[in-house]
Amino acid sequence: MKIQVQTELLQKKLTLLNHAISSKSQLPILLNILLEAKDGVLVLSSTDLEIGITTQIKGEIEKEGSVTVPAKTFTELVNSFTKDTLTLEVVDHTLTVKTKNSSSSFQTLPVEEFPKLYQEKGEKITDIPSETIQNDFEIVLFSSSNDTTRPALSGVLVKAEKHGLLLVATDGYRLSLKHSKTETTDENLSLIVPSRVFKEAMNMREAKQVSVFVSRDHNQIIFESGDTILIGRLIEAEFPPYEKIIPTDSSTVTTFEREELLKAVKMCSIFARESANIIKFSLQKGSIVVSSQTPSLGENTVTVDAKLTGEENEIAFNGRYLLDALTNISHEELTFEMTGPLNPGVFKIQGDSSYLHLIMPIRIQG
Asked: Considering 71, 88, 113, which residue would you say is the last residue of a domain?
């Protein structure tokens, strides 16, 4: 293999590819990136067996071929160059990287050991505008769990409905639900996609839209944007019956400015850290009083202007969940609904019925 490529193009792609490299892998080949010079391009691939990424850049090929190279060291080296033209050449299982003034060499592993990322793309189920991926998925993903012992909770339920896709994520303590206008060709679609796969899909901004494929034979979901393909393995589990915990009505509705409530929660979090991170909302006419206290430390109270409809009420939450919600739901005006201190509290976007975020309350004394 011998090919010349532009440093800046390679640097950009390596940043993306390293998202699929695991430093903890016991298989040495998974610490490598696969380079393939063919058909006028350099194809680069990486995988940790949970996700895979393949992408390409243009290059001047003198000799086609392929090689695997240690991802971390290769990336560090390439990032140390400026606007050089790089020559990549393989001779006797050694990859040499040359610029006008430098030469470096890497020991490689056999290409045959590198896993095949996918057999076939499968059925195309939708095209999603890149902007929609950012807007619709970002406000759902943060509710998924990092605990892989309950696989369904570490993913996002994607389900076809009459006018688009339903997206749901929950970790058992909170839940985000979004009715997306993204249409699908499969009216029976129901998948659980690892949240990590969607997070990587949000980095795919090469094209104005992302095409999504499902290979049921290989239990994979594939995202394609421009020259980049992201491959993820679907979660085979049963999603919990989330509908049962979503309130159908409310006795208290209050409307507020998100930024103001976020500031109040941040201030109260300082005192809440030493007392199980509990933050209390007191919903009153014209305001939300946000408070926290630690007997050995002190207490904090912040009043936020709000418009209340219905009964005055009180409820308490884990402060971390409040911070996550108010940070990720970036719309300026939100509403909060509740029916009692022991029932879930629901955040909604003012004037937008397609989204809700639910948090389970904490029982407090007095």
From this structure: 113
| pLDDT in single tens digits along all 366 residues of the chain | 999 999 999 999 999 999 999 877 789 999 999 999 999 999 999 999 999 999 999 999 999 999 999 999 999 999 999 888 999 999 989 999 999 889 999 999 999 999 999 999 999 999 999 888 888 999 999 999 998 889 999 999 999 999 899 999 999 999 999 999 999 999 999 999 999 999 999 888 777 899 999 999 999 999 999 999 999 999 999 999 999 999 999 999 999 999 999 999 999 999 998 888 999 999 999 999 999 988 888 899 999 999 999 999 999 999 999 999 999 998 999 999 999 999 999 999 999 999 999 999 999 875
Which residue is listed with tokens 């991802």?
71
Query: Cα separation of 96 and 181, whole Å?
Result: 49
Co-location of 48 and 61 in the same domain: yes
What single string gives the DSSP state of each residue in 9-47? HHHHHHHHHGGG--TT-SSGGGGEEEEEEETTEEEEEEE
Let me know the angle formed at the C-alpha of 168 by 162 and 171, rounded to the nearest 5 degrees.
165
Distance, in Å, from the CA atom of 120 to the CA atom of 216, rounded to the nearest integer, reads 10
Which of 113, 145, 165 is the endpoint of a domain? 113
Q: Are 139 and 329 in contact (CB under 8 A)?
A: yes
Whether the pTM exceeds 0.85: the reply is: yes
The boundaries of the domain holding residue 42 are 2-113
Main-chain phi, psi angles of 144, to 5 degrees? -75, 160
What CATH number is given to the structural domain containing 35?
3.10.150.10
Buried b (16+ CB within 10 A) or exposed e, 167-193: bbbbbebbbbbbbbebebeeeebebbb
Number of domains in the chain: 3
Does residue 228 belong to any structural domain of this protein? yes
Domain-embedded: residue 366 = no
Residue 164 domain-assigned (yes or no): yes
On whether both 231 and 251 belong to a single domain, the answer is: no
Helix (H, G, I), strand (E, B) or coil at 102: coil
Has residue 364 been placed in a domain? no
